[in-house]
Design a protein that fits this description.
twelve-stranded mixed sheet; 635 residues; elongated; single chain; alpha/beta; 20 helices
Length: 635
């Protein structure tokens, strides 16, 4: 059986993440192990609700079912989340490997940013004679960003010129914040620093664009350096002088640390991968690498990428129109399933769309809330294909994560993505063996468009349902003034949502059928029949005074028992039977005559998958009781 390694991160550093995953994949070729990547795309500018909805995907796996966990902190700069995942891995007793950050007693892998950054400082000062430095950092608690800043400070201290670091500006890894700061700097008229040292290549390119927009030229007016040596920075004009952190090698090293712990090592060891500074045009070096050759190669690839993007956008538009044209949740599941069966070229032969069971129920009852901090124990399977084999079931145990998963065979990379609206969880998507789709942000575009289409669908149907509900006079039966059938159907949906979330909940369903109504209607008229129904309803409500009662048919009632009525259900059933008249099939009947057939069933988590299972059992008992009271036998 294959081992399972859980990897947690965000997808914003897509290129460095793809290199790291490639390194892990290569290092596992001689082993039997799958990688489960739990991926999301929160930003520091997002609302707390959106961040929660994104990072809820980290709560999906039960780490007791895994053989190891890896946190790629170069993409996950949320220290509380890192601590939370580390705690879960320790509780599960599995090896945990950190990349790009450190915790006491935890094995980690990193790159020697420190020495490479000192080499960068030495290069720009000795080769280009720069003095003043502006450092564009990430966040204040980022380990990698802080290490790079420490290297700059230490180099200047060693050379007795600490005052040359004229500014440290924290961008929170947001390019827009960096661009605004550069524009403010330019408009103020203050002198530019000799060099902008940026904590990653994205910030470096952003600073370069902002300077150009304000009338400055790089490298003539200021030098710029970055970190990561990503492809975009190589073909950028000017190509960005950068530090290659060797993420592929880090991925391989993470696997080796994991293997050591599986073999009995206690952990806590740190493996540092050497980095190297690579000069470029942005630091006024034009002879260290052939940037034009890389640009020509990417220019040649641009046509095919543009064509693929066009077809991809068409596919997303078809998904939008398919989802938004549906009038019910069942229609949505059927139509989206059929669409993906017919065409899944972009998704591949192993792709899964799983939705929360309460997603559909919440459309019809606004009291039903979607999960915000976890996933339900069961998921609705909208579409599921593993190696081209379509999953036949309609529901799936969430603990198993992947329908049709094969614990044997070739190694695979599975990517899990959240589908949500703000903090409300809709479900999740799974792609397989798709490192290139991580790198080119295919997955980001796909799951955000899918979530947006589902959000529009849900809100449109919810509004339509509310409008229809207004026509039902608040769900009351006009004769007895108890709840009516539609109200009971809503109650069933609400109960279903509760057992989806909490299988330990307790409730019972009591079914009632009023005997002799037809005989009274035929003999005394419908007014007498109505009075008889009111007496019967009054008795039911008096006995089950703590439970909602519904009239679901002409002579049929139902009560949903919880709390005190549930705890004392047998006593209550005895009370109602003792309070009614002896059954008679002959007229005249006493003026206070009431005869009701009764049946009670309670929810059993081991046998009942749905509320309807309980109701059916109560109905069967009620008909058996009716036959016994009439003195006849049931078939």
């Amino acid at each position: 059986m294959k081992k399972k390694i859980a990897v947690f991160t965000t997808g914003w550093g897509s290129e460095i993440l793809s290199r790291f995953l490639s390194g892990m994949t290569d290092a596992l070729k001689e082993d039997q192990a799958d990688i489960f990547l739990f991926l999301c795309y929160p930003t520091f500018l997002d609302t707390p609700a959106i961040k929660q909805g994104e990072m809820n995907i980290f709560n999906l796996p039960d780490l007791h079912d895994f053989d190891g966990a890896v946190i790629f902190a170069s993409g996950l700069d949320y220290q509380d989340k890192i601590d939370e995942i580390v705690s879960r891995a320790n509780e599960a007793g599995i090896p945990i490997i950190l990349q790009g950050t450190k915790r006491e007693g935890i094995s980690s892998v990193g790159s020697d940013n420190y020495q490479a950054m000192k080499d960068l400082c030495k290069h720009v000062r000795e080769e280009h004679g720069v003095k003043t430095i502006s450092f564009f950092a990430g966040t204040k608690d980022s380990h990698d960003s802080g290490l790079r800043l420490d290297a700059v400070r230490d180099y200047l201290k060693e050379n007795n010129c600490e005052e040359d670091l004229v500014e440290v500006f924290y961008t929170n890894w947001e390019n827009s914040i960096a661009a605004n700061h550069v524009s403010e700097m330019c408009s103020s008229g203050e002198a530019l620093p000799d060099v902008f040292i940026c904590a990653n290549d994205g910030l470096a390119m952003t600073v370069c664009v902002a300077l150009t927009e304000n009338g400055y030229e790089v490298p003539r007016d200021a030098l710029i350096t970055g970190v990561d040596y990503i492809d975009d920075s190589k073909v950028f004009d000017p190509s960005i002088a950068s530090v290659d952190q060797c993420f592929r090698e880090m991925g391989a090293a993470a696997v080796e640390l994991w293997k050591e712990q599986l073999a009995g090592d206690e952990g806590g060891r740190t493996e540092m991968i050497p980095c190297k500074f690579i000069p470029g045009e942005s630091c006024n070096c034009y002879s260290f690498r052939n940037s034009d050759q890389v640009r020509r190669r990417m220019g040649r690839d641009a046509y095919s990428k543009r064509a693929m993007t066009t077809y991809f956008e068409r596919k997303l538009n078809v998904i939008d129109s398919t989802v938004l044209s549906c009038l019910t949740y069942l229609e949505l599941k059927e139509n989206l399933h059929n669409l993906l069966v017919q065409n899944h070229d972009y998704e591949g032969n192993s792709f899964h769309v799983l939705l929360e069971p309460n997603f559909g129920l919440s459309i019809y009852d606004t009291r039903i809330k979607l999960s915000t901090e976890n996933y339900s124990r069961k998921m609705d399977v909208v579409y599921s294909s593993e190696d081209g084999k379509i999953f036949s079931g309609e529901v799936f145990d969430t603990n198993d994560l992947i329908p049709g998963y094969d614990p044997e065979g070739d190694n695979h990379l599975y990517v899990f993505l959240p589908v949500h609206e703000a903090e409300s969880t809709y479900g999740y998507l799974i792609f397989r063996d798709c490192i290139e789709k991580v790198e080119n942000h295919f997955l980001l575009t796909y799951y955000t468009r899918m979530a947006l289409a589902l959000e529009k669908f849900r809100h449109a149907l919810t509004l339509d349902h509310i409008n229809k509900r207004l026509l039902d006079l608040m769900g009351k039966d006009p004769l007895t003034h108890v709840n009516n059938r539609m109200a009971f159907e809503d109650k069933e949906k609400f109960l279903q949502s509760q057992i989806n979330s909490d299988p330990e909940m307790q409730f019972g369903i009591a079914m009632f059928d009023v005997n002799n109504l037809k005989m009274i209607n035929d003999s005394l008229g419908h007014e007498a029949g109505d009075a008889y129904l009111l007496r019967a309803c009054h008795l039911i409500c008096q006995v089950f005074k703590h439970s909602p009662v519904y009239r679901i048919g002409g002579d049929e009632f139902v009560a949903v028992l919880t709390g005190e009525d549930y705890e004392n259900r047998d006593e209550r059933m005895k009370t109602i039977n003792d309070s009614m008249s002896t059954y008679s099939a002959e007229m005249p009947l006493p003026s206070d005559y009431v005869s009701i057939a009764c049946g009670l069933a309670v929810y059993d988590k081991n046998t009942d998958a749905a509320v309807t299972d309980v109701a059916k059992r109560a109905d069967d008992k009620m008909y058996k009781d009716k036959a016994e009271k009439k003195g006849t036998k049931t078939v």
